[in-house]
């Protein structure tokens, strides 16, 4: 298991963690100031400053990327199918232009939530078929761009509105069908979404064996969790056995960055330097 106590040389910060405090350029500066190794930026934050300017700022600050957020939201009907396809291709192109190691995919839930305006449906199985078809199509474009796709299973509480891919096993099964023996479609393991899963450790081992572990995201699960989306905990403040999960991820062969990704009304209300300093301190002490 890697020793993280010396400093944040493997720490990445997902830029949504401080999205309420600052724009992307300020976030880049602040992360560099705290010695943080990498970021994972969001498309809207990159768009706000422009792709080229964002790429240059990241490079000038000496930061790496742990991913690019995000593509996906595949289930759609009517004209929204084409719009989803075009949008996802642009996401791949942007990720490649930024030099990101992968594009994070959040699959999408029922079509009316994934792509508003689509015909409302309760057909979750149908949504999963749309997801698989969408990834299959995007994969061809991603291969041309030489940009791996990282499918991130989300906690089942999001099955309707955010992602109908809810376990690591489900994501890996999909990857096996769409990218057999390949390295173009992998998974992102996020402790917030997967910590509860009785098959988590088997899934991590399998993902490692198949070379599909592309990203590792940390935060914590608070009890009680007061908001499904925006009450993620800072590492160490909740009940996730972070050390045990990281050991499993690293035992499975993962040598990449560790990304702190905290959507939290509490942490969004704190000064950016306090949030980043706390991320570094917790990364060193509890991750
Ligand atoms: Zn994540």
How would you write the strand order of the largest sheet?
3-2-1-9-8-7-6-5-4
**Small-molecule components bound:** zinc ion
- Contiguous low-pLDDT stretches (5 residues minimum) are none
Share of residues in helices: 40-55%
Q: Which architecture does the CATH hierarchy give at level 2?
A: Alpha-Beta Barrel
Cα separation of the termini: 11 Å
Q: What spatial form do the alpha-carbon principal axes imply?
A: globular
Fourth CATH level, the homologous superfamily:
Divalent-metal-dependent TIM barrel enzymes
CATH class: Alpha Beta
What pattern of helices and strands is seen along the backbone?
A: EHEHHEEHEHHEHEHHEHEHH
What structural category characterises the helix and strand content?
alpha/beta
- Topology-level CATH name: TIM Barrel
Strand content is 5-15%
Radius of gyration: 18 Å
Q: What number is the mean pLDDT?
A: 98
Task: Enumerate how many helices there are, as a single number.
Answer: 12
The number of E-state strands comes to 9
